[in-house]
Amino acid sequence: MQHFVGGAHAEAEPPAWADVHDPARGSVSGRVALGDAGAVAEAVKVALDAQAAWAEESLGGRQQVLLEFIRLIERSRDELAELVTGEHGKTLADARAEVNAGLDVAKFAAGIPHLLKGDFSENVSRGVDTYSIRQPLGVVAGITPFNFPVMVPMWMAPIAIACGNAFVLKPSEKDPSAGNRLAELALEAGLPAGVFNVVHGGAEAVDALLAHPDVAAVSFVGSTPVARHVYETAAKHGKRVQALGGAKNHLIVLPDADLDAAADALVSAAYGSAGERCMAISVAVAVGGVGDALRERLVARIERLSTADGHDEGTDMGPLVTADHLRRVSGYVQAGADAGADLVVDGREVRVPGRENGFFLAPTLIDHVRPDMTVYTDEIFGPVLSMLRVDSLEEAVALINGGEYGNGVSLYTRDGVAARQFQHTVQAGMVGLNVPIPVPVPYFPFGGWKHSLFGDSGQYGEDGIRFFTRRKVVTSRWAPSAGSRVDLRFPG
Ligand code: NAD
């Protein structure tokens, strides 16, 4: 997979290539260019040249391109899902849902004529009006993780472009193909060449983007250590930056909850996409003696799940993304067992007929986990659900609030007073009450607290519009001259 710059795939040989894998077969399925500072400089130059004209496009003109982009993605939903499943491993049904989630942001961005409306105050002084306008930043970069190769680029690109910027995407090198396809579809939709570019690579390409003087803003989504690096480095270079990091999301079950609904939610949110979601639930907190009944329900559901090639009809869960990641996740399972936790369901021995070399780990449940175990403290990013038991909601909230991350949390209960207390005191950016994965719809912002988000702005919603524009406030006097005079006092 080559860079896509100025509306065409690059032809020059890159300095290096990396292998791309089919995770279900464990085989090499392609290769991706590893861009260096030169590749980044070329993409940014092309983007800068294209941006000036694009920024002059009318709001209706930009909207028209977005509406066509949406239509083409809908037409290409299965094709995009196939690219995702082939390189990431998630099931086709889940990949199609990912495309739909990305489309929802594009639909939000298509409202750009409304979203860019500024404020206006008439007569702030006699004959003087004050108003605000929002203008594009110029060239903006999006650096995205492997786990949503369509959705996360779509959190950024449609809004950045609708706001009049040119966009340079640096997708994950683990599943690079979907990013190129999105850029091709945008071109087909009528977006001028050079407004949506893709540069591939790893840390070298990222660092070149962070240092490039013509990149005005960087939107990053990935793991916490890299998010911190991106945040600090981009800020050092004077850029606007938002950097979303990792997570360790808890779902608390109170004794009065509908236990079947809670178990359904836990299994869906823990094992969907093999746990490779930043909003996956990786910790179940059973409150006040509800643990045994919950465990029984979890095990019954886990036994019915099928782990296989994500292309196959009837597969609930596909493989992990790489062999390295499989080793890392398996290591955490062993560490939990070694530390004395109760390994209730061990997914490490799974064998998938015909896919013996695939990177598979079946759903794993570990009970009686303690807060000092690495299986609890670290983001595992695999199909491993840890269960802790506590005596009260207060204890559960204290556990969450004492942790490093603050992305998503959820509570299952029938008690409105407890629910309100939970939403008021819990330290997390996205809170669910009787819902498994509280991902906000695109007209609300997406973002966590603490080490799940560096910066003050989440993805999409009003935050997205603000992040990808600069505000200008104009004070104007268009009134008959009312006897102007010299006055050295500060206006007020
Ligand atoms: P990652 O941090 O390894 O990679 C993210 C991006 O950064 C990729 O494009 C990668 O090429 C680049 N990168 C990797 N190492 C780098 C380095 N040393 N210097 C500069 N750039 C580097 O993340 P991943 O493994 O692709 O994705 C999984 C992580 O992303 C998980 O931690 C998950 O929680 C997180 N995530 C967070 C959200 C959110 O909204 N908070 C959403 C999705 C994923």
TrEMBL record:
<dbReference type="InterPro" id="IPR010061">
    <property type="entry name" value="MeMal-semiAld_DH"/>
</dbReference>
<keyword id="KW-0520">NAD</keyword>
<dbReference type="Pfam" id="PF00171">
    <property type="entry name" value="Aldedh"/>
</dbReference>
<dbReference type="InterPro" id="IPR016161">
    <property type="entry name" value="Ald_DH/histidinol_DH"/>
</dbReference>
<dbReference type="InterPro" id="IPR016160">
    <property type="entry name" value="Ald_DH_CS_CYS"/>
</dbReference>
<dbReference type="GO" id="GO:0016491">
    <property type="term" value="F:oxidoreductase activity"/>
</dbReference>
<dbReference type="InterPro" id="IPR016162">
    <property type="entry name" value="Ald_DH_N"/>
</dbReference>
<protein>
    <recommendedName>
        <fullName>methylmalonate-semialdehyde dehydrogenase (CoA acylating)</fullName>
        <ecNumber>1.2.1.27</ecNumber>
    </recommendedName>
</protein>
<feature type="domain" description="Aldehyde dehydrogenase">
    <location>
        <begin position="18"/>
        <end position="474"/>
    </location>
</feature>
<keyword id="KW-0560">Oxidoreductase</keyword>
<dbReference type="InterPro" id="IPR016163">
    <property type="entry name" value="Ald_DH_C"/>
</dbReference>
<dbReference type="InterPro" id="IPR015590">
    <property type="entry name" value="Aldehyde_DH_dom"/>
</dbReference>
<feature type="region of interest" description="Disordered">
    <location>
        <begin position="1"/>
        <end position="22"/>
    </location>
</feature>
